[in-house]
Structures are given as structure tokens and as C-alpha cells.
């Protein structure tokens, strides 16, 4: 049972307000190694804000964050990276005009003993990491702007795992992709899972993520409606959680669940 292991991430009773708006209100979520947890809810439910607190982009007003069972202080994105937390945003942070290897090492280039760029080592490592994620990828010499959305996505993910991400946050990863590319991202996620990486998959569309997820958390108005294993609930039941805030018998209700 995963419950007996130490979670990779626990966010407990997290709250943040912007002006008078409680964007996130006493939300608790967790994630285990090798697990895919989907964070679902309508636009404005508070998903991105909650996850940006984990990524160090926002500072919480209250609540606690534990990584591998220990309380941590995440003040900025650099702190988050130190805990192995990497974020793949919807707007992929890839440099369009350079190739995959250059993207993997952007700002962290490998150098030879003479101080020049070690292109050979960087390309070899790029081939190794990309090969693990996406064995069919061949376009190492092309600028990233020539790649498909799915291939760009794999470059962004390779960059994260190259620097030892243990916790990957993907915020609406398939929002800009076609069906074939979405399937490709699904394959990437399975690969990462097999490597023991924990993944938060954020989406406003249950159909994008339900089949990939081991568990789902549903948010509404900044609160957690409930959580469930995807084997214990149907898609329609999760839709009921998203739309009405109503928890089915197979789910564990959170503070945002409506009674009855
Ligand atoms: N930087 C911000 N300043 C003010 N309000 C914000 C900010 N970020 C998010 N919000 C508000 O917080 C709420 C939750 O937004 P968000 O986390 O983006 O939702 P989701 O990702 O679920 O669509 C919304 O009401 C949104 O307008
Ligand atoms: Mg969002």
C-alpha cells in the first residue's frame, strides 16, 4: 500500500488570498513516488495557485509543506528546484532557435577543460535522456521551433529530469496539443512514473488526465472537494465533484464537499 510509504509531497491546510479573494482555502494534497496525481477543477478553482506555492512562485499565507516527510520552506523557484521540484508550464519554457541539446543545458552548459562549450558531451547526454523518454526522437540537430508540440514537450521534460527532478508539475500539459501529441505526452508520463518520479497533472478537463492518473483531487472555489483513486470512482462521479462539489461513496471528502 502506498499509504505506508512516506509521501514525496504533502501540502497541508494551505491558504492564500489575493486582496479579498481566497484563491486557495485550507487545501491539502499529497503525492507518492511513481504516482500520477491529477488536480482537477473549473477555471479559477485555485489549482494553479496551489501548485505555484509548491513551485516557489507564490508565498502561502498559512499551511505547511513537507517533502519526504520533512517540513520545508520554499521561498522561491530556486528553493523548489533544490527539493527536486520542476514545473512544466503550459507555455513551454524552451528556447526556439537552438537545438534540443542546447535547450537541455540552457544556463547550465557543460564546458571542456579549456573552458569552451562541450558540445559533444552535451549532445551525447541529450541523446541518452531523450532516448529514454522518446526513443523515436531523431531531430537533435534542428532548432526546437521546428519540432511538434509533443516533441517540444519531451525536450522540456528531459530538461527537468536531467537535473534530477523527483517531483514534476505539469500545468495543463496538453492544452495546446492535438490528439496524437497528447497521446505522446501520455507515453512520456508513463515513462517518468516508471522512474519513480511523482507527477502532479493539472487540468480543467477530466478527459485529458483521468486515464493517466492514479488519484485525483478536485478543487472548487479554492477548496478541496475530495480525493479518490481512479479505480474507485467513475469519470461521471468525478464530474459531479467538479461541477457540484458532491463526493461519491468511493471518494474521501475534503473541506469543500457539499453535504448530502
Ligand atoms: N496573481 C493573482 N492576483 C490576483 N488574483 C489571482 C492571482 N492568481 C490567481 N488569482 C485568482 O485566484 C483564483 C484561482 O485562480 P487559479 O489558481 O489560476 O485557478 P485555476 O488554475 O484552477 O484555473 C481565481 O479567482 C484567480 O482570479
Ligand atoms: Mg490554472
Automatic annotation (TrEMBL):
<protein>
    <submittedName>
        <fullName>D-xylose transport system ATP-binding protein</fullName>
    </submittedName>
</protein>
<dbReference type="InterPro" id="IPR003593">
    <property type="entry name" value="AAA+_ATPase"/>
</dbReference>
<feature type="domain" description="ABC transporter">
    <location>
        <begin position="9"/>
        <end position="246"/>
    </location>
</feature>
<keyword id="KW-0762">Sugar transport</keyword>
<keyword id="KW-0472">Membrane</keyword>
<dbReference type="InterPro" id="IPR003439">
    <property type="entry name" value="ABC_transporter-like_ATP-bd"/>
</dbReference>
<dbReference type="GO" id="GO:0005524">
    <property type="term" value="F:ATP binding"/>
</dbReference>
<dbReference type="InterPro" id="IPR027417">
    <property type="entry name" value="P-loop_NTPase"/>
</dbReference>
<dbReference type="InterPro" id="IPR050107">
    <property type="entry name" value="ABC_carbohydrate_import_ATPase"/>
</dbReference>
<dbReference type="Pfam" id="PF00005">
    <property type="entry name" value="ABC_tran"/>
</dbReference>
<keyword id="KW-0813">Transport</keyword>
<keyword id="KW-0677">Repeat</keyword>
<keyword id="KW-0067">ATP-binding</keyword>
<keyword id="KW-0547">Nucleotide-binding</keyword>
